[in-house]
Write a sequence for this structure.
C-alpha cells in the first residue's frame, strides 16, 4: 500500500534528481539471505544518506515483527513536508542453523533493503541486492 501527501511536486522533483545521481552501492560487508547476498543496511544508508540530505530528503523505516513475517513501513519525507509512505512485507527466513533473533535480524535487513529500493525507486541491484550466483 502506498500513501502520499496531497501535494507531491517538490518531493517528486527531489526524488527524480536523487535517482539520476544515486551511486551503485559497493559491496563492502555482505549478508547472506537465502539464495541472495546483500549489503548490510548500514553500508547502504551510509552511501545514500549524503545525497538524500543534499536533495532535502529523509527516509524513516519502522520494522514490525509478526510470527511468520516482517513488515517494514517506509516513510520518505521532503523538507517541504511532502511525504510518501509504503509498506513491504517478507516472510521470516527460517533455518535450523539460526536462532529466532538471528532470523528476525536477517529478515529485517532484507526487508529494509527491499523497502529502500521501492521507496527510492532504485533497482535492487543498485542497492547491492544480488543473487548469490552472480558473485561466483
Amino acid at each position: 500500500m502506498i500513501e502520499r501527501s496531497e501535494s507531491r511536486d517538490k518531493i517528486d522533483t527531489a526524488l527524480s534528481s536523487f535517482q539520476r545521481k544515486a551511486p551503485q552501492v559497493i559491496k563492502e560487508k555482505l549478508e547472506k539471505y537465502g539464495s541472495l547476498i546483500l549489503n548490510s543496511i548500514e553500508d547502504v544508508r551510509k552511501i545514500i544518506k549524503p545525497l538524500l540530505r543534499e536533495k532535502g530528503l529523509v527516509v524513516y523505516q519502522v520494522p514490525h515483527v509478526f510470527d511468520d513475517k516482517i513488515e517494514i513501513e517506509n516513510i520518505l519525507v521532503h523538507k517541504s513536508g511532502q511525504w510518501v509512505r509504503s509498506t513491504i512485507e517478507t516472510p521470516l527466513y527460517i533455518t535450523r542453523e539460526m536462532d529466532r533473533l538471528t532470523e528476525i535480524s536477517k529478515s529485517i535487513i532484507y526487508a529494509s533493503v527491499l523497502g529502500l529500493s521501492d521507496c527510492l525507486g532504485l533497482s535492487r541491484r543498485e542497492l547491492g541486492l544480488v543473487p548469490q550466483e552472480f558473485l561466483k
User: Anything to note?
Assistant: The longest strand covers residues 69-78. DSSP finds three helices and seven strands in the chain. Residues 131-136 have pLDDT under 50 and may be disordered. The beta strands are 2-4, 30-33, 36-39, 57-65, 69-78, 83-91, 130-131.
